[in-house]
Amino acid sequence: MPDRRNHRGAHPQDRLLFARDAEPDLRRATSDLNWLLTHGYASVSALKLVGDRYALNARQRLAVGRCACSEEDANRRQMHQVETPDLAGAELWIDGYNVLTSLEAALSGGVILLAHDGCLRDMASMHGSYRKVAETIPAIEILGELLAEWNVSSCRWLLDQPVSNSGRLKTMLRELSEERGWNWEIDLVPDPDPVLSAADQIVASADSQILNQAGRWFNLARTAVEERVPEAWVVDLSGC
Per the database record, which ranges form the DUF434 domain (predicted)? Predict the structure, then answer.
């Protein structure tokens, strides 16, 4: 069936699955998964182990899996992270869908996860197709205003070419940037991950594989949410 959602908000069961009284088990499960990953356990089998132990459903397991990482990975990511002042005069390469969908979800009241590595991650899944929602334009405007405020010299947005409607999003980003005078380049590429992982420029993403390889990265989604969407529904699984 076609996707007719107008928002990238909460799943109907999220109020129960991520309620305050569910958070302790989610935190313990994330802590256990962090430990298993740190000690070399395979991610799939380790997630099944902790999911079964805490009787988590599929959506809760997805959340725990997105928040956990080994201590080695967490330390590596922290060492290569740059802060807002470092963006002044710099070129920023943006993992387009990764950043945009998290901000859309935050604006629409969806669950946002604060992960062990300090990143914010959403629960959205595009399944090869992207659909503009009511929060898309406001999210782009927030990002553009912040990047201008931080004096970023230029931005290169990378969008997954195989994802349906990437061309439409590219047009939307280009038109908004031209209207506002933002120095943006928007490219469709077969797979942004290897491009961003090998970039000499600062990259903006919360994708674990990119963060494990990037020379310099900026926590754009988290910073944007904290500065412009303070009312966002954040489930904190970081301090495990």
Answer: 26-78
**Class of domain 76-236 as given by CATH:** alpha beta
The fraction of the chain above a pLDDT of 90, given in percent, is: 91
DSSP code of residue 201: S
Q: Which pTM value belongs to this model?
A: 0.94
Taking only Cα atoms into account, the Rg of the chain, rounded to an integer number of angstroms, comes to 18
Beta-carbon count within 10 A of 136 CB: 20
Q: Where are the domains of the chain?
A: 12-68, 76-236
Structure tokens at 82: 């740059």
